[in-house]
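#dry-run=false #mode=assembly
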Amino acid sequence: MKNLKYALLGAIFGGILIKAEVMSWFRIQEMFRLQSFHMYGVIGSAVLTGMISVFLIRKFNIKTIAGEPIVIAPKVFTKGNIYGGLLFGLGWAVTGACPGPLFAQVGAGFTVILVTLASAIFGTWVYGLIKEKLPH
Amino acid sequence: MELIKQPWPWYVAGPLIGLIVPALLIAGNKAFGISSSLRHICAACIPANIAFFKYDWKKESWNLFFVAGIVLGAFITVIFLSNNEPVNLNPETIADLQALGIRSFDELMPEDIFNWSNVSRPIGWVFFLMGGFLVGFGTRYAGGCTSGHSILGLSTLQWPSLVATMCFMAGGFAMTHLFLPYLLKLL
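#status=ok
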């Protein structure tokens, strides 16, 4: 099935989140207390690697395995980048996780994070509900 | 094997995470991003006739396979590929958190906060319900999370993602230094 390759990539990503302790609440605290370079190094080198990869994809016109040209949708600025970003940041320091690590925390055996995840799904749902009333 | 079982340094893990970006693009033109999965779950399970959830989520089902993979990969790694030692934190962080009432530093997460008995206590309402809500609401309002904005967005030099990333960090610093000391009094 064609979606299995994405499950495999997800599994690799989940494994890295554990091995680098990126999904650890403690590591996130260390980051926001400026007491370790670890998280900054992880995110910084990930961005650099991603940047070089995208540059190479564009330069050599690399195609998908199905032979399609690679397209990356542009991100459009809205005020939500600011307001939503700040709200997510507050939540990031509380849960010690962005959405990816939330799934990794569950997989690591912290099953109570299923409650956090359900609440995150509810938060997304409420956003959909009141989207039109929010400044964008 | 010992090398694999030890925690990986940032310069190993970071580039590997970065390579997920081209891997997804080459696998099928997929944009790295996790928070969208929460939207797809809403669209699939509780659309409630809300316009934001009326789209063909099945076309985006790769994203749900990806997050299911995260759960599975994390599980396998913890069981078979970890030495299960405490996180090697800066002693200053441990001292700061001890001063705020955290006692357990043996696992990847503090047991004091993240346990099932806290679900029925105010500390759990703050850390699970409020925290989760902020993550889910905030990422969607921001149009992405650390993966979609900070890693994919910055990798492709998109300035809205830089704005979003700076706001993620600002929110995190504010929570850690201004609010968390009070919230942890609920322990």
